[in-house]
Design a protein that fits this description.
single chain, 262 residues, alpha+beta, Arc Repressor Mutant, subunit A, Beta-Lactamase, 2 domains, six-stranded antiparallel beta sheet, three-stranded antiparallel beta sheet, 9 helices, globular
């Protein structure tokens, strides 16, 4: 008779849901997407909230300065209080100031959009810095943009260097949204290649027609903490050019890793 193995206990502390906090965060993220000021009705409908509940939360956010409301149009947008929070994040992390000159150099020399990303565990990655190219190509990303951690080229880095079992990896992979979704088995092979070569290339999977090259930046303990990403139109990024870019980005990332470890 075969024994049933006990289910693996979830790692980390148990998180108890606090609906009011989750809703307030959802409102801030919605207003932060850059769609412009929104009415109470639009916010409530977009987030599936009861209008009265949404109004009470908005009033608190307005009183704290995190959201502002136009008295005439009754439209809501992010308030200046968000700037103090964002400034504190940027000032307490050395990465944005260290990586910006690197991104500017890559964008100018290679005519790409260069991005500095912070990886926050297995859940999300956040753009901390970027430099745009001179090309008439604009990637819809800004400082503060937030994406699932396993998505795109950086996602392959996360999968390659994270301590995660196959079942959990597959579960998270199936929840990702791609323009051209890669096959799970092919994606796993690409992740294995990342472990051997130390860089990742996404050619049109995440965004159709866009090539992304990503290299890892490690913290003082040798853990993946950030990534450098280069983005360009796929038809302007040949395989040879992508490989050359990846090698040069690796050298920059290694230098950043050493500076971050000091």
């Amino acid at each position: 008779m075969s024994e049933t193995k006990p289910a693996k206990a979830p790692s980390g502390p148990r998180i108890r849901e606090v609906p009011a906090v989750s809703r307030a965060i959802a409102i801030l993220r919605l207003l932060g997407r850059g769609q412009g000021p929104m009415t109470l009705k639009a916010i409530a409908e977009e987030l599936g909230m009861v209008t009265s509940t949404c109004l009470h939360i908005l009033r608190v956010l307005v009183s704290e300065g995190l959201v502002k409301v136009d008295g005439s149009s009754k439209r809501y947008s992010l308030g200046v209080g968000m700037l103090a929070l964002a400034r504190n994040v940027l000032e307490t992390s050395p990465f944005p100031s260290l990586v910006q000159p690197v991104l500017d150099k890559l964008a100018q020399e290679d005519n790409i959009t260069a991005i500095g990303v912070e990886i926050t565990g297995l859940d999300h990655m956040v753009v901390l810095a970027l430099s745009r190219s001179r090309a008439p190509f604009r990637l819809h990303v800004d400082v503060g943009s937030r994406f699932p951690a396993l998505l795109s080229a950086t996602g392959r880095l996360v999968a390659a260097y994270a301590d995660i079992d196959d079942a959990e990896l597959e579960r998270r992979f199936k929840s990702l949204r791609w323009d051209q979704p890669p096959d799970m088995e092919a994606w796993r092979k690409e992740v294995d290649t990342v472990r051997r070569k130390g860089f990742s290339i996404d050619r049109g999977n995440y965004i159709d027609g866009v090539a992304l090259v990503a290299v890892p930046v490690f913290d003082a303990r040798g853990r993946l903490s950030h990534s450098l990403v280069g983005a360009a139109l796929a038809n302007h990024m040949s395989a040879a050019r992508a490989l050359d870019l990846a090698k040069r980005m690796q050298a920059e990332a290694e230098a950043l890793s050493q500076m971050m470890a000091r």
